[in-house]
Amino acid sequence: MAKTIIIGAGGQIGTELTLTLRNTHGKEQIIAADIKTHAPPLIEDGPYVQMDILDRDSVRNYIIDHRVETVYLLAALLSATAEKNPDFAWKLNMDGLFTILDLAKEGYVKKIFWPSSIAVFGPTTPADQTPQHTIMEPSTVYGISKQAGERWCEYYYNKFGVDVRSIRYPGLISYKSPPGGGTTDYAVDIFYKAKASGKFTCFLSKDTALPMMFMDDAIRATIQLMDAPADRLRIRSAYNLGGISFTPEEIAASIRKQLPEFEITYEPDFRQAIADSWPNSINDSYAVSDWDWNLEFDLARMTHEMLKNIP
Ligand code: NAD
Ligand code: SER
């Protein structure tokens, strides 16, 4: 059976994606790869390879030698970290993508998943129910890299028939693996602080609405898109995915329904400007009609799951 590799498997999405794909495809078929020396404990019971996506020759040799046909390329610097190191963020977020797109162009790789983000939108984008096709003038290096990546994915599909699929993920919320340096990370941290101390200081202002999604929904969306018949897919840049839109004040209120003493204060930092440039909510009608997308976790259900599972 053809093999699948997840590059960046040690991160927030990769850990859960690896777990889910191994449950459905069998452990030996799903290779986890990351620059980290060891796999996170949750996925250490299956194949793991230390890999630097920037080492183009090693990545090529590994994928060709092991007959890997499906690649999930998750290694990237996220928005807040990328703003601190723009040169490296551009290099990491773009060079790795070309390595994998070229392997597909040459016929070694048959299918690619590469995630985009709501960060492709910018301050001039309509902020409410942002449509699939709209003004996109991102103002962060992360957003610029994701927008460029989308253009290249579509180009490789149109010119070379590369089967590359992508989602503009909203901010992802999970308890199995920590987030890796994004602007939406507050919406994970808030649950840990609520459980540990009952207090949280938020780096965004109370009325900053952003699109978010519980990880179970995001993993289900990813697999649904990858399993969808190619002839149903109208979008080869990246699909909008809506999720749940809420402000820090609203997520705090949701937590207070279970932990009435919970307190939140606000100290916005440089991440406020990033959040202000992103949409409040997303229209995902293309995902609904092309691959039958439907959301399962609303704010109340997600809050319940997070508080139940965080010790
Ligand atoms: P993460 O930071 O948690 O994980 C990224 C993983 O990539 C880490 O384990 C890291 O060690 C690994 N990595 C870094 N440099 C590498 C290299 N040179 N070679 C191999 N591995 C390397 O990120 P995540 O949240 O899991 O995001 C995964 C992807 O999804 C990224 O492309 C990100 O832009 C995108 N995305 C994430 C979110 C979110 O909210 N988490 C939202 C939108 C898009
Ligand atoms: N959650 C991501 C971030 O904040 C969005 O891509 O960077």
Question: What is the CATH homology-level superfamily of the largest domain?
Answer: NAD(P)-binding Rossmann-like Domain
SSE order in H/E notation? EHEEHEHHEEHEEEHEEHEEHEHHH
CATH-assigned fold name of the largest domain: Rossmann fold
Per DSSP E runs of 2 or more residues, the count of β-strands stands at: 14
Give the name of the CATH architecture of the largest domain.
3-Layer(aba) Sandwich
Mean pLDDT: 98
Termini separation: 39 Å
Radius of gyration equals 19 Å
Biggest β-sheet description: 6 strands, parallel
Biggest sheet: strand arrangement: 3-2-1-4-5-7
**Which segments are poorly predicted (pLDDT under 50) over 5 or more consecutive residues?**
none
Structural class: alpha/beta
Count helical runs.
Answer: 11
The level of helicity is: 40-55%
Bound molecules: nicotinamide-adenine-dinucleotide, serine
The CATH C-level class name of the largest domain: Alpha Beta
Our estimate of the beta-strand percent is: 15-25%
The figure for the number of domains is 2
Structure, described:
By secondary structure, the protein is an alpha/beta fold. The chain has 2 domains: 3-170 and 213-240, 3-Layer(aba) Sandwich (Rossmann fold), CATH 3.40.50.720; 171-212 and 244-280 and 297-309, UDP-galactose 4-epimerase, domain 1 (Alpha-Beta Complex). Helix content is 41%, strand content 16%. It has 11 helices and 14 strands. The chain has helices at 12-25, 56-65, 79-84, 86-105, 141-160, 186-196, 215-227, 248-256, 271-276, 285-291, 299-309, and strands at 3-7, 30-34, 48-50, 68-73, 111-113, 116-117, 164-165, 167-169, 171-173, 199-202, 210-214, 239-240, 244-246, 263-266. The strands form 4 sheets. A 6-stranded parallel β-sheet has the order 3-2-1-4-5-7, with helices on both faces. A 3-stranded parallel β-sheet has the order 6-8-12. Helix 1 (12-25) crosses helix 7 (215-227) and helix 4 runs parallel beside helix 5 (141-160). The N and C termini lie far apart (39 Å). The model has no long low-confidence stretch (mean pLDDT 98). Bound molecules: nicotinamide-adenine-dinucleotide and serine (SER).
